[in-house]
Design brief:
transmembrane helix; globular; membrane; single chain; cell membrane; mainly alpha
C-alpha cells in the first residue's frame, strides 16, 4: 500500500468520524447543516477506477446513513455526485482534466470554488429531494438546499485552503 492510498483511507475515516460525531449535531435554524464528508469524493484521484469509485462513494454515503438513521439518502446522493464528478471536472478544468493533470490543491481558487459549488449543489439537491420526497414541499427543498449548500461550500473551502497550506 502506497502513501497516497493510506492518505485516502485516513481521509475517508476522519471525514466520516467528523461528520457523524460533530457535524450531524450542527443544525442552525433547521436549515444549516454542513456535509463535509463529500470532501472525500471531491479529492479522490482523477485516475481512480470508476466502478471502484462508485462503490466507495456508495459505502461512504451508506456509512453516514447508518449513523444518521437517514434511510439511504446519503448513499444515493454520494453515488450520484461520484457519477457526476467527471462531468463537473471536464466542465470546470477542460483540457487539464482530459490529460489527467488536475490536482485540486494546485488549481486557481476560482476554479476550485466552481468545482466545489457544482458538486455540493448536486449532492444537496439530490439529498434533500430524496429526504423530503414530496413535490408540494419544493420551497422547503430549495431552502434546505440553498442554506446547507452555502454552509457546506464555505466549510469545504476553508478545509481545502487549510489543507493546501499544510501541503505547501
Amino acid at each position: 500500500m502506497n502513501r497516497d492510498t493510506l492518505l485516502h483511507i485516513i481521509r475517508f475515516i476522519v471525514l466520516i468520524l467528523l461528520q457523524v460525531i460533530v457535524l450531524n449535531h450542527v443544525n442552525f435554524l433547521g436549515y444549516l447543516n454542513p456535509y463535509i464528508y463529500i470532501i472525500f469524493i471531491l479529492l479522490a484521484p482523477i485516475n481512480i477506477n470508476r466502478s471502484l469509485f462508485l462503490v466507495i462513494s456508495f459505502i461512504l454515503g451508506l456509512t453516514i446513513d447508518m449513523f444518521s438513521d437517514s434511510g439511504g439518502v446519503h448513499a444515493a446522493a454520494s453515488t450520484v455526485i461520484a457519477f457526476f464528478r467527471p462531468i463537473a471536472l471536464r466542465s470546470v478544468f477542460g483540457l487539464s482534466y482530459e490529460f489527467q493533470t488536475v490536482k485540486l490543491s494546485n488549481v486557481r481558487f476560482g476554479e476550485q470554488l466552481l468545482y466545489v459549488i457544482l458538486m455540493v449543489l448536486t449532492h444537496h439537491i439530490m439529498l434533500f429531494s430524496l429526504e423530503i420526497f414530496n413535490f408540494s414541499h419544493i420551497l422547503l427543498i430549495a431552502k434546505k438546499t440553498l442554506f446547507s449548500s452555502l454552509f457546506t461550500i464555505v466549510t469545504t473551502m476553508l478545509v481545502l485552503v487549510l489543507f493546501r497550506r499544510n501541503n505547501s
